[in-house]
Design goal:
Helix content: under 10%
Order of helices and strands: EHEEEEEEHEEEEEEEEEEEE
Strand order of the largest sheet: 1-7-6-9-4-2
Organism: Methanocorpusculum labreanum (strain ATCC 43576 / DSM 4855 / Z)
CATH class of the largest domain: Mainly Beta
Protein name: Lipoprotein
Radius of gyration: 17 Å
Number of helices: 2
Number of strands: 19
Largest sheet: 6 strands, mixed
CATH topology of the largest domain: Jelly Rolls
Length: 228
Amino acid sequence: MRKTFTFPALLLALALVGLVITAGCVGTPTTTPGTSFSGTGNESIATELPAGVYTVTITQANITAVSVETKETETFIEGRYTDAAAAAAKTADGWVWTYALLTDANPTLVINATGDWKAEFAFPQQIDGVPPQTFTGIGNAATPFFMINEGNVSFAIKATNNTAIGVCLMDYDGNPVMDATNTFEEPLAYHLGTYNDTIVVPITKSDNYLLNVMCDGEWSVVVSEVLA
């Protein structure tokens, strides 16, 4: 089984172990059609979603851990905010965040929550644009797909009022863009603490890409082509 554990797995390892154990104790999954699911507290749902790339939108009343599992893959995501960022991020419906992922057919959605929650699956949005592009937010977020041409591309990343940040590039087929050693996701697999730096990534294929930003604070990413 390939497992993908997203932010803040490294920072909160002990806490997440407890959450994963709880996820295994929510009972037999109930099969539910559709693309939108909601509930209160812990729940395991056997979906009928076809295989593909999705943006998952989570609306949560409290900190919520989400796992999307198939026989071959597992993606774990947690919605968490620092005290400094939580108030600014909260909406009338609670906290809302997004994450993009690739899944096999009929994944199981596992929720660990202490309050009301909602999970909605949809194909990622697309924008008709190329770099320069600027994205900003508070908490986890998946950007829309946008066109990046082959060549060197810079990612100016800034994070404040946070404990950690990761910014990962995904192509249109749902594959992560890896570094030269095929070890870490580009441009920033994980960083502990605030961040303010620019990373240049060689893009080998002109395609539509999106960014998954995993952060518990405020962030911005400016994507620009590096001129020769």
